[in-house]
Amino acid sequence: MFQSACRRLLLQTPGRSATFLRVASSAVHRPNVPRTIGSTRFFSEAPKEEAKEVDPMAAVAAAQAEKLLAVKKQLWEIYLSTGRGANALFEAIDLDENGAVDPEDLKSFMIEVMGDEDPKEIMPYAWNRLEQRAAAGVQYDLRHFKKWLVAATKMSADMKNSRVMAYLMQNPEVGERFFNQLPHQGLHAFDDEEPANYTWNEETMSQSLRRMQYAVRGEVAMLADKLAAEGREILYTNIGNPHQVGQSPITYYRQVLALCDLPAECGVDHPKAHEMFPADVIARANEYRDIIGPSGTGAYTHSQGILGLRKHVAKFIEARDGYPSYPGDIFLTNGASAGIAMVLQGLMANNNDAVMIPIPQYPIYSALIAKLGGRQIGYNMDESLNWAVTREELDSKLAKAKKEGLEVKALAMINPGNPSGNLMTHCDIQTVAEFCAEHGIVLLADEVYQANVYGDSAQFVSAKKVALDARLRDLQLLYKLASSELCSGVVGQIMTSLMVKPPLPEDESYELFRKETTTIFEGMKERSRKLVEGLNKIEGISCVPAEAAMYAFPSIQVPPKAVERAKEMGTTPDNLYALSLLQETGICVVPASGFGQAKGRVGFRTTFLHPDTVKAVDLFAKHHEKFVKEYS
Ligand SMILES: Cc1ncc(COP(=O)(O)O)c(C=O)c1O
């Protein structure tokens, strides 16, 4: 009871929980005194068996100390996950309530809460500052404590941030304003003591937003932009952005979109329209123009999207899954990202609301959860099982989350996988769907790559189809959110309809459409195979076949000296590897740590969109050999 009541207090009101912490801590010294907080009463009782063997007072004190440590760890965990509860943390260290924290107390607190991890390694720069203060015997008030917390919990190591700033400064193209252009700040005894110039700054901003990060556009991509600006040829494989790397737009889509946008007299009603556009394109554009109505593409639509277009989507889903689908249940959003953001916003009500996400994951999930101040629970996908997830793994992660007082609201499933490139089987999906159904967890199925399946016998199965068998519950909050955002872009809505309702074999555009889409698909299929085969031939690199989506996610073996060097640089071994790969070869990948991966694994994600992907295999091999030599 002690634990759960304490947790309740902790998770709901960080300020009050710290008050409780003080009470609990004084109970260590006077264990037989009942403690009251509000209406909650706690008795400090010695466990019976222990009381028989040892001094009961000592046993109670030990039990209390353990509980106290659990509370401290939770406060730290909450801050780490949500960016909230800095005041509570301060109060938890400032036990004599004099508004000042001794650096030595802060050091002991951090060592305690970080358990197996060494704060010196995790936060070298912030730890250094703390030691300087301790040596000088200068205490922290709340403001300086918060400043220190910001430094201690930067998502990226401080040295990495200074490297990023250096790239930006050398690259005026990005249009940044730099610190050295600001008025001189003066010298201070401690660099965390510089007066803040602005009321909105790194400490006062939303700490959830500060802690949000998106590796796909991280340090490696920034260095790539800098090198490109200097005239270096860069092979961008860091982002799934087909047109950026030369994929031609599909003619049919562009023609229909153009005719929807153009004034009728310049487009569908132009006397020479039939000389410029195939008849089915004109017919489709006219169909859309009728559906959209006289307001055209420039007006707000129904907040869920235009009904006629949602009907097309519902029909597609119905044909795909063999279950009814209703336009009223469809929400057309500005891409999947906006949809994910809406759903997560609707789900995250408290700091202790959590979402289970796959590890590795597409980082929009971790970024948005951080931004919304929620908690993420990673469930590991097993690389040795082609990135499948087991029921045991889901159960154990849920149990752990519950033990920590978290409420798991949703589970995100990415199929086909990004970054893993795997395709879930019917059976895999059923495992996840049943788990969600049993625990009343909302299943978020991210299926943006459903058309990109390359394995010869592989077939995409939607979570809806599987989940309907498992009778999952619906999410009802969405409409409220959607209506607050007016509507998604009309061009995107039309595009969605075009994707689910392509030209038919009897249509004039069909042949070109088929040729263009098949060329793209076959190119991806071939490159996915050749890239993975090529990577697997390199000694020290291994890659699970990319059956779907557009990514390969190899793991690499790096020498221990490279791990040491990364530590010295305040970065991860895969960031060091990716920076080196970029500098040596011009290939821009994303370090695997940006997606999450098993402890000790080192890897990267590369797309196989670029036509030169296969040629790049040689460069990957040469670089790997050089890198291993350099650090051996
Ligand atoms: C798995 C996954 N979900 C969602 C998105 C975002 O999609 P959109 O561009 O439609 O917002 C991406 C984009 O890369 C993705 O890989």
Give the SSE map.
Elements: H1 2-12, H2 14-29, E1 35-37, E2 40-42, H3 48-53, H4 56-82, H5 86-93, H6 103-114, H7 119-122, H8 124-136, H9 142-152, H10 158-170, H11 207-210, H12 219-229, E3 235-236, H13 251-261, H14 273-276, H15 279-292, H16 307-321, H17 335-347, E4 353-359, H18 364-371, E5 375-380, H19 391-403, E6 407-414, H20 426-439, E7 442-446, H21 463-470, H22 478-483, H23 490-500, H24 510-537, E8 541-542, E9 551-552, E10 555-556, H25 560-569, H26 573-585, E11 587-588, E12 590-591, E13 604-607, H27 613-630
Parallel strand pairs: 3-11, 4-5, 4-6, 6-7
Antiparallel strand pairs: 1-2, 8-10, 9-13, 12-13
Bound molecules: pyridoxal-5'-phosphate.
Pyridoxal-5'-phosphate binds next to α17.
Question: What labels describe this entry?
Answer:
632 residues; binds pyridoxal-5'-phosphate; globular; single chain; alpha/beta; three-stranded antiparallel beta sheet; Aspartate Aminotransferase, domain 1; Aspartate Aminotransferase, domain 2
TL;DR?
This protein is of the alpha/beta class and 632 residues long. The chain has 27 helices and 13 strands.
Overall description:
The chain is of the alpha/beta class. Among the domains are: 2-152, no CATH class; 216-240 and 516-630, Alpha-Beta Complex (Aspartate Aminotransferase, domain 1), CATH 3.90.1150; 329-473, Type I PLP-dependent aspartate aminotransferase-like (Major domain) (Aspartate Aminotransferase, domain 2), CATH 3.40.640. 51% of the residues lie in helices and 8% in strands. The chain has helices at residues 2-12, 14-29, 48-53, 56-82, 86-93, 103-114, 119-122, 124-136, 142-152, 158-170, 207-210, 219-229, 251-261, 273-276, 279-292, 307-321, 335-347, 364-371, 391-403, 426-439, 463-470, 478-483, 490-500, 510-537, 560-569, 573-585, 613-630, and strands at residues 35-37, 40-42, 235-236, 353-359, 375-380, 407-414, 442-446, 541-542, 551-552, 555-556, 587-588, 590-591, 604-607. Strands 5-4-6-7 form a 4-stranded parallel beta sheet, sandwiched between helices. It has a 3-stranded antiparallel beta sheet with strand order 9-13-12. Helix 18 links the parallel strand 4 (353-359) and strand 5 (375-380). Pyridoxal-5'-phosphate (PLP) binds at residues 240, 335-337, 362, 364, 414, 418, 446, 448.
